[in-house]
Target: PpiC domain-containing protein
Amino acid sequence: MRIMGRRRALVAAVVACLALAGCGAGPSQVGAAFLLGDRETTQAQVQQLIDNAVREQPAAQHLAQQHKLDSLGRAIVSQLVVHELLTQVAQREGLATDEKLISQALEQDPLATPVSVNTVDPSQLPNQIAYRARDHREAITDQVLLRTLAQKYFDKMSVTFDYTSVVSEGAGNTMRDKAFAKAQQMAASPEAAAQVIQADTATGQQTGVGERVPAVQAPDLAATVVFGTQPGTVIAFQPSSEQAAWIIAVIRQRDLSTPQAADQTTEPTANQLVSIGQRLLQPYADMDSLKINPRYGVWDPVAMNLAPSAAETTGAVVSVKGSAQP
Model:
């Protein structure tokens, strides 16, 4: 009975997670939407999903009337990139899918209900339509595997980083511009980050050195670019959409193998586990030479999805020049 109870709880978590999911140069092969290693997803495959969505989803028809189907294309390609990354990582990690769990989740299929433009955040509408346009078993399996990947590493994840911040705009520069420029400065050499942070500390800027954070202490942060980035790399991102401040950090250590102890631990939610699992895919996008067709946009490693252009990414990831990377 306990096993059945846990299974029902897990099915409910998967269904809830799906219901709430918000959870460079072009490819060399003509007709490719993107290339990932030796795997190709074609523009024809993406277009078929767009056509299916417009035919079956009133919300997609709404986007079409507003000439916003490009946002649906980006959402579809983003989800397919994550699917391909996850498929490869699951094989490398030896992750197994629970077919009974997936079948039970499909019985309650949250993707069978059309999206309502009146109840869904407009920014999440393309994602929600994309989930429904895809094969539902595939989409649900992805959610289960992302949770499984996160659970494998969550209590062993920690990062150590040094950081500075940008909290105001400059003359003619947005905060994003300032953050990106500072990221480039910090990545100029192995010593540059320490010099920039020292100078910012002297002027009263919010900074930190040797900040070590275990995932069990901060599940929200564990889902961000901080935990997905390799040592010897500078990142610039906004920790919260509700606050304008930008953080620019250099990752010093990233540990996925040491059980973490913390004075206060926080149990991650189902949605957080999916986001953490997706974040763990970040290094593999670089490793496998992900190439996106420019018609769909550019890969944004900070958001782990596509942005319309390089000028519209949510942050930056810059390798430190002269730094030895794993």
Notes: The longest strand covers residues 246-255. The mean pLDDT is 90. The two ends are 46 Å apart (CA to CA).
